[in-house]
Amino acid sequence: MSRIRATFEQAANEGRKLLIPYITAGDPNLKLTQEILIEIACSGADIIELGVPFSDPMADGPVIQRAAERALKEGVNLAQILDMVAQVRKSTSVPIILFSYYNPLLQYGLDRLCQKAAELEIDGLLVTDLSPEESGELLGYTDKFDIDLIFLLAPTSSDARIKRITEVASGFIYALSRTGVTGMKQSISETAPRLIKRIRDFSTLPVAVGFGISTVEQVKEVWQYAEAAVVGSRIVSEIEVLQKEVDAKELVKRVGNLVREFCYK
Amino acid sequence: MLNTAVPDSMGHFGRYGGSYVPETLMYPLEQLVSAYEATKSDPVFQEEFQQLLKNYVGRPTPLFFARRLTDYLGGARIYLKREDLSHTGAHKINNALGQILLASRMGKQRIIAETGAGQHGVATATVSALLNKQCCIYMGTEDMRRQALNVFRMKLLGAEVVGVDQGSCTLKDAINEALRDWVTNVDTTYYLLGSALGPHPYPQMVRDFQSVIGREARNQILELEGRLPDFLVACVGGGSNAIGLFFDFINDKSVRMVGVEAGGKGKSLGEHAARFMSEGGGRPGVLQGTHSYILQSSEGQVAATHSISAGLDYPAIGPEHAYLHDIGRVEYTSVSDDEALEAFQLLAKIEGILPALESSHAVAYTLKLAAKMDKDSVIVVNLSGRGDKDVHTVAQALGVEL
User: Fold this and answer.
1) In sequence order, which ranges of B134-211 are alpha helices (DSSP H)?
2) Which residues of chain A make contact with B18, given a CB cutoff of 8 A?
3) Cα–Cα distances in Å, from B85 out to B57, B92, B128?
4) Residue B60, preceding bond cis, omega within 30 degrees?
5) Would you state the pLDDT for residue B1?
6) What CA–CA distance (Å, rounded) separates A181 from A195?
7) Does any CB of chain B come closer than 8 Å to the CB of residue A136?
8) What ipTM does this complex have?
9) Domain housing A10
10) B71 CA to chain A: closest CA distance, Å?
11) What is the pLDDT of residues A74-92, one digit of tens each?
């Protein structure tokens, strides 16, 4: 069983739900990303999504777009991100998912990436703009190296698509709370519970809900019907503000505190 | 036959094309594919489309023998396919019209589109006015500066123009923002993509709607010359005017085809928009829904591009062009900003036609090509748009204050 599945299973046995924070690698720099990763793992993050910056993040709202821009300005690339994960692995075994657009992975080399990811105990890949229809090649490598390939399902996904996608998905299903791009919203749309219900008809995989979840109340709401909640833009936004206001040590500490507020109690 | 062999049912042109978009857009794209396929055998749709092409767009556009240019160069006989004479002044209207009729079929009231030079934005705003649709155009702020006249035209036509102030502030960024709008408002909104780019079925659909150019040109040249041309020449940004001209000639093995990319002001990454230029930084990759040649860094970050013409200033090329390039059916070359500028001025003086700066790239290559060919040979050049919109840019490039 993959470490991601084991994490979900253990939480289920303990009767609790999971928190999955997202951060963009290299914002404001890779050294700080390394410290933030370790800090939020210690602060109760169950699984961490690590965003690979891309020049054309068409599925992201302004907050994560700006984070990617800052990271790219720093000259961050995938090879350096993987080196950073190697350092992180000396301190924590928290499951890590690389969250990326397809092109940076494709240019790095899918075979090489999956081999390296397995070495570094990167647990999963989620590729925002890789439809299941085009994922055959990558699936070959994630299977070969025992890495979970996480797929998205959206409120617009037809039942036929849900069936097809849950058949090839591993780890867990990432359900989008709504249509649209990443970003904070006042309330979670009622489309999310409806989508989860439809997913349950086809799959026993655990479900995480993401996009637009930015408050403790919203996270609790998601936990009523799903196994995990993903919090992204809220944390990235905090990092954006803090990097202008406080020093590195304080930034890391406060991001850890923020994650702690969201954790299952 | 070649021209029905691609794309496959998933939108693949060989290894290129496909659908690389977030899951939210996949089912809407499936619906778009079915709706589009249904129009092909729908006589009512076809009749309405043909009537509007004739009576609203003004088709067929002429195939004009450029006698003075031919004499001046002393080589091949040069014909200009006058897309610049279509309503709104560029070939973009052919596709905009086809797609908005499709949007109507699908019951969509809100239309969004991206635009670079502004020609596709103007075409979309125009057909939106014609069919009483709400219209929102995304345009990079750099392009809005270069094409201020077209921005105002779109507003006069009732469209909202949203400036995109991200990345390079050009066409690529406008497409990102249009995709973000679409992924958010997908239930009510039709994305009217303007070039042979993006996820399936856009590259195929745009090609099909633009193929009227080549279909007419083929009949016209057979009538005028009694034979097929030796060369077809068209500029290639995303590649819709080029594929529109080439498509009906693909199986005519004797006809050579040249796509002319924007060579900009140099060979380094960032100085041009020539995806196929050797050592120019173009390689296969995935951008904005499709697998094709992209100008990018070794790490897969999309590169900045440059061209004097906003319509060619884009880092990726349509996937069918990538395919035609790899199988060797179409040759691709590039001309520089300066060469395009010279061609612009020459055609104005010698034929009384101001070509769009995009089309000036095709003319510039034709100047080199025709002179080397014998007098019996025939070249058809796609004059994809008119140059009125570029007068300001040209004046600036020539150091003239208006």
Assistant:
1) 141-146, 148-156, 171-184, 202-210
2) 133-134
3) 9, 12, 20
4) yes
5) 44
6) 17
7) no
8) 0.96
9) 3-151+229-263
10) 48
11) 999 999 999 999 999 999 9
Phi, psi of A236 (to 5 degrees): -60, -40
Are the CB atoms for A150 and A97 separated by under 8 Å? yes
Chain B residues with CB under 8 Å of A79 CB are 299
Contact (CB<8Å) B180/A61: yes
Alpha-carbon distance values, B368 to A25, A97, A164, B339 (Å): 49, 54, 54, 10
DSSP 3-state percent helix, strand, coil across chain B (nearest 5):
45, 20, 30
| Sequence-separated (6 or more) residues with CB below 8 Å from residue B360 | B235, B309, B340, B341, B343, B344, B347, B387
Q: How many folded domains does chain A comprise?
A: 1
Contact B285 A107 (CB under 8 A): yes
Q: What is the per-residue pLDDT across A166-179, written as a single tens digit (0 to 9) for each? A: 999 999 999 999 99
Decide if A105 and B180 are in contact by the 8 Å CB cutoff: no
Phi, psi of A172 (to 5 degrees): -160, 170
DSSP A183: -
Strands B134-140 and B160-164, sheet pairing: parallel
Q: Greatest CA separation found in chain B?
A: 57
- Residue A178 inside a domain? The answer is no
pLDDT average, residue stretch A7-24? 97
H or E stretch including B47? helix B43-52
For residue A113, the domain's CATH number is: 3.20.20.70
Against a cut of 0.90, is the pTM above it?
Answer: yes
Strand A124-127 with A96-100, pairing: parallel
Average pLDDT, chain A: 96
Residue B135 half-sphere exposure, CB side, CA atoms within 13 Å?
Answer: 30
Nearest to A208 by CA among A182, A230, A233: A230
Residue A206 within a domain: no
User: HEC string of B207-258?
Assistant: HHHHCHHHHHHHHHHHHHHCCCCCEEEEECCCCHHHHHHHHHHCCCCCCEEE
**DSSP assignment of A78-140:** HHHHHHHHHHHTTT----EEEEE-HHHHHHH-HHHHHHHHHHTT--EEEETT--GGG-HHHHH
Chain A neighbors of B114, CB-CB under 8 A:
none
The residue of A70, A129, A165 whose CB has the most chain B CBs within 10 angstroms, and thus the best one to mutate to test that interface, is A129
User: Within a domain: residue A244?
Assistant: yes
Task: Give the pairing type, strands B12-13 and B16-20.
Answer: antiparallel
Other beta carbons less than 10 A from residue A139's beta carbon: 15
- pLDDT, tens digit (0-9, with 9 covering 90-100), for A197-250: 999 999 999 999 999 999 999 999 999 999 999 999 999 999 999 999 999 999
What is the β-pairing status of strands B160-164 and B110-115? unpaired
Look at residue A45 and tell me if it is in a domain.
yes
